Amino acid sequence: MRAAFSKTLAEIGSADPRVVLLTGDHGYALFDEFRKVCPDQYINAGIAEQNMIGVAAGLARAGFRPYVYGLSAFVPIRVLEQIKIDLAHDRLPVVLIGDGAGMVYSHLGTSHQSTEDIAVTRVLANLHVYSPADRHELTRCLELSTQASTTAYLRIGKADRGDVHTGPITASVGDLLLVRQGGPKLAFLATGSMVRTAIDIAERVYPEAAVWSAPFIKPIDSVSVIDIARQARTIVCMEEHSIHAGFGSLISEMVAESAPTRVLRIGVQDRYSKDCGTYDFLMQEHGLDATSVAERIGQFLKKA
Amino acid sequence: MTSDLSRFDPRQLRRTVLEMAFAGSTVHIGCAFSIVEILAVLYRTHLRYPGNEPDAKGRDYLVLSKGHGVMAQYACMRELGWLDDHAIKNYFADGSHLKGLSDSRIPGLEVTSGSLGHGFSVGVGLALAAKRHGSDQKVFVVVGDGEVNEGPIWEGALFSAHHQLKNFMVIVDENGFQAMGRTSEVLELDSLQRKFEAFGFEVMSVDGHDQQALDQAIATLSSSGKLSPKAVIARTVKGKGVAFMEDDNRWHYTRLTADSYRQALACLELEPAR
């Protein structure tokens, strides 16, 4: 997924001289390819994220197409107001890339763990929110970003969970993607790293479940969501993000209004990580490993 | 570009501000009055708007980072013909588009401000864009001295100096006040000249109500051969032009009554022209 990111970003930069990549002193080798093919379009803006967003706004106003990279704990969290006022207010075509979303920095602690970014970005008017699950979704999101007519936030989480698609995809902004066929009564809707987990759980424990990936959180194809909700007895939403105001909340809001059915939100509860450890350890601590999630689903289905 | 002093006459600009303030409700009068001469000099002599179009391609940029002073900018935009009398007289009427703080959707206002410390960085981005385009466009950013409490100002100062944005000029409206008191009582700023110099700026300090001095400082810095960004520290008086509002922070954000409106207009006429 990271190789796909580096490659696609370099392609975008070399295809369009208006593209400028700004980073808040993060990224390391991720930008080697970009810097090789378009060195003049790369700016390390320093450890100064607020200014970086403002600079991106000025560049976009004058006709450039900035890509702004940071860790998702900083971009968008630290610079939310700059995104609202300097970018989204005027639909400036700036692509914000928040890397390391969720529990990726499992050893570093709360400052680098990011489980609030979907919540705070999806509430901003004019802002698109993308959350790809594998390299194919990521590549497609980046391709679409080149034509974006407004500001977009691209959330990149755990990147080595393997593919959920068999090859390149041609999705449009907003599409929900069926990644595993199943019956209509039980639907797993997942985003980002949790799509792989959702497929694994369906394969192992709930073969009747259809699994949908949501690489686009905003906008999202509401017709498809409502259609799924009308047929399903139970929807399970999964995200490596807080259950409050995240992807599961979004689906719940849509379903409650138009096609009420039971929705289980799997995600991070209302707390920060207490200890550190490997990524897998931390996911388990938050009940986001496949076994824990499967158990939660079992309990939920029993209550039905 | 003209130096015809009958254009952007500060007294007339202040009349417009008072007219809007009275038509509106609670407004930032003191913040607008301190930047009247700064804006008058910029619009009269330094800003280029091809075809007098506020959105003209290739224009210079005036970024009012301290959006609280926006009534002074509206007054200039009225003079430019970008705003009509109806918009001025109906300030704050239901459904009207001129707000109490600047909104980038109004042609002539480059950024949405009011939350402080934003416009500076956007101006830095505009200056960087002009440099990358090889254009001679200039960027003037007006910030308040209270506003420089904000961290992004100093992030942007580092960035603009590092990238040698010689086409970037910040003008600090040093009126000595912020919302809740004197800047020296809230967060001591000491010498802004030395601070900006330390960040790599070429700096001049002037009387911010002396149009000739402002004009000269802006011209001198604009034509400087140095690659550094520029700063003008404009020493101003909050509420300038109406004696009973001057240096009195109660006029930071308040409303005019019929009486105070009449008195303010009378005071304005007594003020000697400069």
CATH topology tier name of chain B: Rossmann fold
Question: Got a strand count of chain B?
Answer: 7
What is the share of helical residues of chain A? Answer: 25-40%
Biggest sheet details of chain A: 7 strands, mixed
- The structural class of chain A is alpha/beta
The CATH architecture category of the largest domain in chain A equals: 3-Layer(aba) Sandwich
Largest sheet entry of chain B:
5 strands, parallel
CATH topology of the largest domain in chain A: Rossmann fold
Strand content of chain B: 5-15%
Overall mean confidence score, pLDDT of chain B: 96
Number of domains of chain B: 1
Looking at how many chains there are and whether they match, the oligomeric state comes to heterodimer
Strand order of the largest sheet of chain A: 2-1-3-4-6-5-10
How would you characterize this protein structure?
- The complex is a heterodimer of chains A (304) and B (274).
- In chain A, 37% of the residues lie in helices and 20% in strands.
- By secondary structure, chain A is an alpha/beta fold.
- Chain A folds into two domains: 2-155, Thiamin diphosphate (ThDP)-binding fold, Pyr/PP domains (Rossmann fold, 3-Layer(aba) Sandwich), CATH 3.40.50.970; 177-303, Rossmann fold (3-Layer(aba) Sandwich), CATH 3.40.50.920.
- In chain A, strands 2-1-3-4-6-5-10 form a seven-stranded mixed beta sheet, with helices on both faces.
- In chain A, helix 1 runs parallel beside helix 6 (135-145), helix 7 packs across helix 11 and helix 8 packs across helix 9.
- The longest helix of chain A is centred in the first third of the chain and has 14 residues, at 2-15.
- The N and C termini of chain A lie far apart (38 Å).
- Chain B has 274 residues and is α/β, with parallel strands linked by helices.
- Chain B has a single domain, classed as Thiamin diphosphate (ThDP)-binding fold, Pyr/PP domains (Rossmann fold), CATH 3.40.50.
- Chain B is 39% helix and 12% strand.
- In chain B, helix 10 (211-222) links the parallel strand 6 and strand 7.
- The mean pLDDT of chain B is 96.
- Chain A binds chain B through residues 20, 45-46, 48, 50-64, 81-82, 85-86, 89-90, and chain B through 104-105, 110-113, 115, 117-130, 132-133, 151-152, 155-156, 158-159, 162.
